[in-house]
Amino acid sequence: MPDPFQDLRPLAGAYAAALAREAFSRGLVTTAPDGTQKAITPGATPVVLPGRVIAERRTLASTLARAGFQMAQATVQGPSRELLLGALSPLERRVVERSAPGTRRLAIARVDFLVSDHPAALELNATIPAMPGYSDLAAGAFLHVVGRAAGLDEAAVRRLERDNGSNVEALYRALLTASVQERGRPPERIAVLCRRADSQLSEVDHLVKRFGELGTETHRVYPEEASGDERFTAQGKAFDLVYRHLFVHRLSETPSPFLEAFFAGETARGSLLFNRPAAHVEAKSNFALLSRALEDPALASAAGLGPDALEAIRRAVPWTRALAPGSARGPTGEVVTDLVAHVAAHPESFVLKRAWDYGGKAVFIGPASDEPGFATRSEMAFGERLSWAELVRRAAKDTRGGGFVVQEVVDIPRERHLLATPAGPVEAEVFVDYSAFASVGLDPEPAWGGVVRASASRIVNIQGGGGVLPLVEESVWARVRSALRAES
Question: Is 232 in contact with 238 (CB distance < 8 Å)?
């Protein structure tokens, strides 16, 4: 496959600033509580993959998401429920305990991979999996600006965007399919529920706009606007489906007995909610259970994991365990006398993550423990600067958010990309991840794609300053490349 970097490097000066402006205007931004918008840097060079590879990663993500859902559901309704429920806030725990028995499907999930010679799944997102909108915005802005620079007219550019696929359209199709499976009909009106100070407000607005364009009246709704008895009601309208873009724990900031009961499935039962509360699915201790299932047949059986699921876990999930003292089997099956001491002695091999957290705030990468940022992160989490060994010992005693899990390091090289800024292209060596979207319990499952993030840090995260690289399907890129070569 021709390298897009080599094709675009000589040309990027002519389009990068326009691409930065286009992405910003479309909504590739985060929003501060005061309404200020900050650009999410778009890639000026895309990640190009064959449709076959995108589909393979979608299938793998779907299998892992289903396995994670089964494991979490079996665990919180079984004798070992404290393994996952103990990680949650009191409010989250209450809601999950009440809602889990009636939760049968997830409209959207996201599996985050690092890819070297094969995709390695680092975690599963199932609460409010972000970036279906951001991924479309980054790819759409790139294809529009570069397509026009290549001399393509608006109709040809629109065809490129259409043929590249859309995660927002996949989400829309997932919600319609879920509604049909639950109620026998698609929804007539959708509410997208979010906070007023949601940092991803532009993505929410993009979902609202696109769902409407795709055929269903949709409104952004804030928690304090919601009420109802038979159906979820807001702004003088009744909604038969609510898409939740709101963490359950946010209800503690503005308590709402109605929403707590609605999330638990105990009121407004004429309206569907997706996703239902799923913090137990997303908790990293659940990922540790999936990893442990490979050597614990009873655990795998209790969760209903079949051969396909176990093979996907074996192939894609790095060794992950709860960080606790005592003997354990290490990543290669070796017997470790004391897991905490072993992890403390081998920073080159491990990553620590708080079991229930998000945004990469409590992630500590052993191979980066000598870098300046590591000490700063440890101070933010524990109030003082710690060495790797000190941090491991502290983390093993910290029970907040369910304690910590330890995961085998996945090494990936930096990649060379051009980033689009208002001042023009910036060449950078960045770490890149790949997130694949999926659904659980839907038939048919929509044609999800993925999203690619890039960061100077090993912890690739949008809120931490990472960017979004356009994901472009190979045949679409071939048409852009051909037009660029003809224009030059």
Answer: yes
The CA distance from 158 to 258, in Å, is 43
Name the nearest CA neighbour of 69 among 359, 243, 276, 260. 276
Which residue's entry shows tokens 């690289």?
Answer: 469
Contact 240, 89 (CB under 8 A): no
Comparing CA positions, the residue from 44, 35, 156, 93 lying closest to residue 454 is 44
Tokens standing for residue 145? 């600006």
Query: What is the longest distance spanned by two Cα atoms in the chain?
Result: 67
Q: What contacts 447, CB < 8 A, 6 or more positions away?
A: 58, 165, 170, 173
Query: What's the pLDDT tens digit per position in 135-147?
Result: 999 999 999 999 9
At a CB cut-off of 8 Å and minimum separation 6, what does 174 contact?
107, 108, 274, 439, 442, 445, 446
pLDDT digits (tens, 9 = 90+) for 226-279: 999 999 999 999 999 999 999 999 999 889 999 999 999 999 999 999 999 999
Q: How many residues does the chain have?
A: 488
Say if CB 402 and CB 80 are below 8 A apart: no
